[in-house]
Amino acid sequence: MSDNHGFGVDIGGSGIKGGVVDMETGELVGDRFKVLTPHPATPGACAEAVREVVAHFGWTGPLGITVPAVVTGGTVRSAANIDAGWIGTNADELFSETLGAQVTVVNDADAAGLAEDRYGAGHDKDGVTLLLTLGTGIGSALLYRGTLVPNTELGHLEVDGKEAEHRAASSVKERKGWSYEKWAVHLSRVIREYEKLLWPDLIIVGGGISRKSDKWIPLLEVTTPVVPAKLLNTAGIVGAAMASLPAR
Ligand code: BGC
């Protein structure tokens, strides 16, 4: 283990992925390792799965772990798309005890935002950056000059009587069989609401659908420049590792 290395684990709906991160470059050192997310994904079952991932690398230092939920002071506060058993769980403590290591738990979109802001699409950009992850739900991260305002939860903002993530997450496009054109109308409506409230200078879009961003970013009718995330499937791991280490 080098001084320059960190470790992150990303807990997602289908997989729990971890890897060693080079904190200079934000790149993974070697491959990621993935196990399937247990069902039901209770805190205890996830802790065991994370143990397997960490053991694969023999990592013993501090590490960060993402969850798709609000986290304040290490405790999970919401469960929009995860097992309800997480609410009220002190996740920092649970994972630290299971792993015998110092663990920092962070919201998944916040982790991705930290990583993109330092190493990815937000690198060297001044002003307010808003990262949106488009997947089962909509995750958000708001940063100003590298500093994160945690747990913004913009996916739950009500837009025309409906939560933004129920209107425009990529899962809605899939479920309803919408074209990119149709989905872009709904996503634009949601983003315009975010613009009105936050006036970001840059919007970074992540999540699986950002791989095909050339098909839909040009269709968006919004004012702020929108760019795809660069780190794609490593942003959660990298951001989790960042959250576990003192700010640089
Ligand atoms: C959750 C957020 C999470 C997002 C993406 C939302 O439903 O409330 O905490 O970041 O989904 O996973």
What would your notes on this structure say?
With 248 residues, the protein is of the alpha/beta class. The protein folds into 2 domains: 5-110 and 234-243, ATPase, nucleotide binding domain (Nucleotidyltransferase, domain 5), CATH 3.30.420.40; 124-229, Nucleotidyltransferase, domain 5 (2-Layer Sandwich). It is 31% helix and 26% strand. The chain is built from 7 helices and 15 strands. Strand 10 and strand 11 form a beta hairpin. The longest helix is centred in the last third of the chain and has 19 residues, at 180-198. The two termini are 19 Å apart. The structure holds beta-D-glucopyranose. Beta-D-glucopyranose is lined by residues 68-70, 78, 80-81, 107-109, 133, 137, 139, 153, 155, 165. The site of beta-D-glucopyranose has 15 residues, from helix 3.
